[in-house]
Amino acid sequence: MENRPSLFYRALRSAVRATLKVFYGTVEATGLEHLDPTAATILACNHPNSIVDPLLLGMFERRQISFCARDGLFKIPVFGQVLASVGAIPIKRRTEHASGADNSDAFSAARAVLERGGVLAIFPEGKTHGHLRIEPLKTGTARIALGVDLGKVDKLRIVPVGVTYLVRHAFRSDVHVAFGEPIEVSAKDFPAEPLDHTDNVRALTERMGGALRDLAVHIERTEDERLIAQVTSIVVGIRAEEGLDEGGQSPAERTALVRRVVDAYRWLSEADPERTAALRERIDAFMDEREELGLGGERPALQHRGEKTRFRGPARAAYLTLGAPFALFGLATSLPPYIALRAAMGLLPVTTDRIALFKLLGGAALFGAAYALEVAAVAQLVGTLPAVAFGAALIPAALFARRYVIETRLHRVHLRSFKAWRRSGRLAALQRERRALQAELAELRKQYLEQAGATA
Q1: Which CA distances in Å does 294 have to 172, 261, 289?
Q2: How confident is the model at residue 414, as a pLDDT?
Q3: Beta strand 183-184 with 26-30: parallel, antiparallel or unpaired?
Q4: pTM value?
Q5: H or E segment to which residue 278 belongs
Q6: Which of 78, 123, 382, 454 could form a disulfide linkage to 47, CB 3.0–4.6 angstroms apart?
Q7: Element (H, E) at 29
Q8: 333 and 434 both lie in a single domain
């Protein structure tokens, strides 16, 4: 059984865990009980965020994972060698090979991993994409599973995994990783002969697709993504006024809420299409005005970037006063690499689904280099021991400075642009429209919950 990861894999996983815990605020996993260490396992995951997705999977599966990755990644210097060293399997895409994509060797290697009782990770959508939906699945995952020699394994199962990024590209955003009910692969579950018969492949692929749609946020039409995100934002406010979600929502709770909003939108579209169209037109106009005033709204985000203050009254005054020196230290040491990263993002074309990866890798490189230079300078000026203490304080100080800025509400200077402040009449009208939309959505929410038999 391939249960114990190699030393290199464990070291790499530890580094990845530390990096992801810094970059993302909360990474919540549900359904971990579905990971059976005694079963040969395929992790079939959606693919919304490039290489970040497999990194997340590696955080929670204790065994070493053999990842299936497009063969082009193996040609990248250093990164390709890392992939090969951890046992990744190159998969050819038809769109990238004019002469055709022969994956017979890759499929054989994947089946060999499973026949040894190992773990295989596949992204059956066949591509990474920037949409809040599950794309139609390729059949390769099913063909690999159904081609395994079941006489060599005690159990073979496919565990669907739905990953939802509440703000895909944002630093300190939250992530929900949902491990679903396993799909057992055995001769009795798929009656057609041979086991990898076309009907079995189609049936298994459809089961995986349905499971992924049940685990992640699935919005059928791209043009509905921004609408669903805005409605979710307003519903969060409605729930807060009702005294629900005190202390905020966990990533899993927010994912569940977004899914209910999607269901409610589908219900209203069928029950009252005219009212749906009118409401949609109002919300679109509201979001366009927000964007025009520089208040955001141009990208679908399922989570607010702004955060509530943690301190009030005397405690907040003490926090702001006593914390000012450490916050200033964090800002002074972190601003140069932050500015460099923002400048690089402005100069280089980065697609939406790769922004988080660019920030993760670029940030690690730029902040690491800047911090190393700063520590070296301190060591040169005052000695080794002070430099060690200085270096140990850099990351905590950077995170504290971010929290401090939020507590002082300085982030509103950015969010409420000067354009919005100059046009106070339009800003007031926008606020009135939000209150009106909130009232209408509150009534619709009540109707939806009544017909759905729900309570929250």
Answers
A1: 22, 26, 9
A2: 44
A3: unpaired
A4: 0.87
A5: helix 273-292
A6: 123
A7: strand 26-30
A8: no
